[in-house]
């Protein structure tokens, strides 16, 4: 793993946090005219769900506000966000992953999405409190009530990030749901394999996975040298080979600092996390 990056603060003592509980899945009807965060929280909050990975497809937002990954203008962060872009007429989200959690006791959501502007593929970090649902839609949440997701300050990166917290004992029965965060400079695929080994899961699906890596290194030889990125998992599988070793396939869309979208499978051992990666993993049996 050649690429690592120095952050402004002391290196975190705990680089990987993972918790588990029985998997649950629920559809979220998204009502036209609501802020995106409100449309989601109005369904999840009454159910007592305080942490989830959410998939969105075919979602119209108007107006919508979003930011892109970019370099920091000072020494307070290793990378940062661009100015806020506003599209009053809205966009049609083809696919998105989001992490739903609690920030200062208020529902919040980290949302990476893909859309097209004519024939141009675009993507970015949607601001859920500043974007409106323009048409009724349905999203799918993957969660366990045994785990909640809370925001915490991370001194190493100088960002507020998400961490999973065990609400009660993991419980018995049903498929395992693992909620995890991977912090700066840990290799993403190596860590996913280690998380699954820790939780005794050998066959699993990455239902949602969003975050950033230090550039990008794909199996097809495509290498992204620019440091700031944002990623969305399009398909992720964990499986065990004939030698009993856990393998990870991670097909992603990577948004670089210029706004270009790169698609492909990440190379294991060559993609360290930039700021944070959030994962919701479910055992297949």
Overview of this structure, please?
This protein is mostly beta strands and 285 residues long. The chain folds into 2 domains: 16-21 and 145-283, Hypothetical protein, similar to alpha- acetolactate decarboxylase, domain 2 (60s Ribosomal Protein L30, Chain: A, 2-Layer Sandwich); 24-142, 60s Ribosomal Protein L30, Chain: A (2-Layer Sandwich), CATH 3.30.1330.80. It is 7% helix and 53% strand. It has helices spanning 36-44, 188-198, and strands at 16-22, 24-30, 52-61, 64-67, 69-70, 80-81, 85-87, 91-103, 106-117, 120-126, 137-143, 147-154, 159-166, 176-183, 204-213, 216-217, 223-224, 229-240, 246-256, 261-265, 273-283. The chain has an 8-stranded antiparallel β-sheet, covered by helices on one side. A 7-stranded antiparallel β-sheet has the order 1-14-21-15-18-19-20, with helices on one face. A hairpin with a 4-residue loop joins strand 19 (246-256) and strand 20 (261-265). The longest helix has 11 residues, at 188-198. It is globular, with a radius of gyration of 18 Å. The two termini are 32 Å apart. The relative contact order is 0.23.
